[in-house]
Amino acid sequence: MLLLALDTSTSRTSVAVCDHERPLATAGLAVSQRHGEFLAPAIRFCLEQAGRAAADVTGVVVGRGPGLYTGLRVGLVTARTFAAARRLPIVGVTGLDVLAHQARHAHRPVAAVIDARRREVFWALYAPVPGGMARLTEPAVGTAEHVANEIEGRGEEVLAVGDGALAWSDVLADARAEIGDPALACPMAEHLAALAVPRFVREETQRPDEVTPLYLREADARIGWEQRGRLRGGVTARGNA
Length: 241
Fold this sequence. Notes:
Blueprint: E1 2-7, E2 13-19, E3 23-29, H1 35-50, E4 59-63, H2 69-86, E5 90-93, H3 95-102, E6 110-115, E7 121-129, E8 132-135, E9 140-142, H4 144-154, E10 159-161, H5 163-167, H6 169-174, E11 178-179, H7 189-201, H8 218-231
Parallel strand pairs: 1-4, 4-5, 6-10, 10-11
Antiparallel strand pairs: 1-2, 2-3, 6-7, 7-8, 7-9
Helix pairs in contact: 1-2
């Protein structure tokens, strides 16, 4: 099994080529709005460093969000195109799950928090279980104050990870949450691959056109469709419909 994994759901672009046990090569760029120009060279670089060719890849893993529209779309389009051209199976992974997985060795509840801009965050709570992390709440969008209230209500020590946790560290710290290391701030492609391996083994994969972004905010989805319409030269209707 040789997997190409990529994530563009946050300000950091991450690419990895992995076998079923470990990453063979990784590349990352922590510069927002540079996803598109970085992805293709990063994929070539990782394949070269791993000593493999694109034809050797047997599956594709992509971060499906939550995140902001532009970054998400770049990653999804790239992953779908790569997989469709080679008739490969694909798996979409939620970035919040990846953040929790990256913090699994903390052996405590984890709040995965991604910066959603507009003074909001995408978030979910997780608990350690044998073999990994179990999601306790569904992915949601809200204020950092709301997340802090949820953490405080648990009455136990919680580790908050993600770029949203760093951006709102003062608010979350007031709820007695420990703020995770900046190294845990963004979903990393090699961890996407690790979470996806069992799904490939069980053949719980999708066709490229079946992988969809996880939008938690209606405005992001609406803006996305409006931009798509303009790019195609169409006219987007406005209103409540």
